[in-house]
Amino acid sequence: MELKIERLTKTYDSGVQALKHVSLTISNGMFGLLGPNGAGKSTLMRIIATLQNADEGNIYLDDIDVLTDKDKVRRILGYLPQDFGVYPDVTAEQMLNHIAQLKGIANKKQRQEAVNILLQQTNLYDVRKRKLGTYSNGMKQRFGIAQALLGNPRLIIVDEPTAGLDPEERNRFHNLLGAISEDRIIILSTHIVDDVRQLCSQMAVIHQGEIRLITKPDQAIHHLKGKIWEKVIKKQELNEYTDQYKIILTRLFAGNVLIHVLAEEQPSPGFEAAAPDLEDVYFTTIFASGGHQGLFLKKPPLDPAKTFD
């Protein structure tokens, strides 16, 4: 299966151009779409999911014209939006049964088996009789994942899927997606770089409505080898260093500031070579496309969930 996006453009009534001639080709497996909030990720996901119209461009899922044959797409689509609401007075089991019927699983026994499997996979089986309104945010997110997987969809779109999940739940979600990704397309839209690094063999970076990079995570990291340098400086020195160097990343670190600089060789004494990671790829791409340099992360350097807000 192949999803082909050609020169997709979307401008809102407010005048904001959310997508600018976006083109992507996505094959079976996990594809990561990485970008900051407001980059156009959710707009692109909603258009692919047939929930929003584009101004220009085309999308084809094999021989299906996604922009015109929306019913065909919806029959093979699983979608978890960023803002996922639930009916508070219905149990998880009842709601999944209802969604399964809407997805065409008419046989009651088959429907119940499918629901039970997903409840177990998302660790919700023991609370399946509880009303959704009593669920925590993490439980609601897991329920959203379960409903997206109903009906064995061939195209799965998950928009910020690990938001609100604790590390154990996040790991369970990664394992679940990894286990089903071989024979279908799964698009993971996120600003959490570790989700892309751990799950995706292909990725793209989107910024200000444009695709800035299409690559494989390992290749992109290898390309930066020997080009990332780090140094801890005092806060009051930041402006001085910003004027002199290509700072792609800054983090608060033990009361000071850790900076990453992009350079072909050691910028000056005191800088140490840093092993590049996907976070450096992301910020280097944003820097090259005119994004803000020296972005502060809200989490400390060693936190495993590196996020961009």
- The structural class is alpha/beta
Give the CA-CA distance, first to last residue: 33 Å
What is the CATH architecture assignment of the largest domain? 3-Layer(aba) Sandwich
What is the percentage of strand-forming residues? Answer: 25-35%
Looking across the biggest beta sheet, what order are the strands in? 6-7-8-3-9-10
CATH topology of the largest domain: Rossmann fold
- Give the overall pLDDT as a whole number: 87
Low-confidence stretches: 292-309
Tell how many strands the DSSP assignment holds: 14
* CATH class value of the largest domain: Alpha Beta
- Relevant CATH superfamily of the largest domain: P-loop containing nucleotide triphosphate hydrolases
H and E order: EEEHEEHEHHHEHEHEEHEHEEEH
Net shape: globular
| Helix count, DSSP H or I runs of 4 or more residues | 10
What can you tell me about this protein's structure?
This protein is α/β, with parallel strands linked by helices. The protein has 2 domains: 2-215, Rossmann fold, CATH 3.40.50; 221-288. The chain is 32% helix and 27% strand. It has helices spanning 41-48, 70-75, 92-102, 108-121, 137-149, 167-180, 193-199, 217-223, 238-244, 278-288, and strands at residues 2-11, 17-27, 29-34, 56-61, 64-65, 77-80, 155-159, 185-190, 202-207, 210-215, 228-233, 247-253, 256-262, 272-273. The protein has a 6-stranded mixed sheet, with helices on both faces. Strand 12 and strand 13 (256-262) form a beta hairpin. Helix 3 crosses helix 4 and helix 4 crosses helix 5 (137-149). The protein starts with a strand and ends in a 21-residue tail after the last helix.
